[in-house]
Amino acid sequence: GSSDSEDEARPSAAAAAAAQKREERLRKFRELHMKRNEARKLNHQEVVEEDKRLKLPANWEAKKARLEWELKVEEKKKECAARGEDYERVKLLEISAEDAERWERKKKRKNPDLGFSDYAAAQLRQYQRLTRQIKPDLEQYERLKEQYGEALYPTSDSLLHGTHVPSKEGVDRMVADLEKQIEKREKYSRRRPYNDDADIDYINERNAKFNKKAERFYGKYTAEIKQNLERGTAV
């Protein structure tokens, strides 16, 4: 009787173990299925986001950062106004010495001196420099506007010659600026010394400058030809 009960217990234990293994496999299969669906959903979201980014303008990131910065500035201004503080003063107090120095270097790089390219560029640079240092007298402007009214703004029919008399301060400012320009011009446009021992291979000043440029660029290629011509051995 005991052997019969043992024989019946073995198949039931084997069936339970098989059922447990089957349940374990089904559980892993369901986990893998859920992970696959989650990965598919995430991939779809990434594709949608990438498509949105590609459709945005090229400078969208810069514009977004600029708008966020402007919103922060507006919030900071409102906070300062609520506390009765001056925003510009608070902003300067928060700037470190390193940031101030870096911004100053960046400001200088915005208008670098690239040297002489042509007279039009040099004239434009001079004009920009002169206009930057102009400090208009708004009080004088208001007085002139009250005095002359519409005549202060000339038209094509206005007679301008002899109608304006500059102030002494304006004349002094112009003279000081002209003297500064002359001093700077003399510093950078000095006349080169004349060498009496140098070969005379030019017919005028302009031809001499051209020959110097040619010698600077092509002298190493034509040195042997020049020596042969001077010796009379050129073929």
TrEMBL record:
The keyword Endoplasmic reticulum is assigned to this record: no
Subcellular location: Nucleus
Family classification: Belongs to the SYF2 family.
Xref: InterPro entries: mRNA_splic_SYF2
UniProt key word Protein biosynthesis: no
Listed GO CC annotations: catalytic step 2 spliceosome; post-mRNA release spliceosomal complex; Prp19 complex
PANTHER family per the UniProt record, alphabetical: GCIP-INTERACTING PROTEIN P29, PRE-MRNA-SPLICING FACTOR SYF2
Keywords attached to this entry: mRNA processing, mRNA splicing, Nucleus, Spliceosome
Annotated organism of origin: Galbula dea
Subunit structure, as described in the record: May be part of a spliceosome complex.
This protein's name: Pre-mRNA-splicing factor SYF2
Main location: nucleus
Region (Disordered) location: 1-22
General function of this protein: Involved in pre-mRNA splicing as component of the spliceosome.
Biological-process GO terms, alphabetical: mRNA splicing, via spliceosome
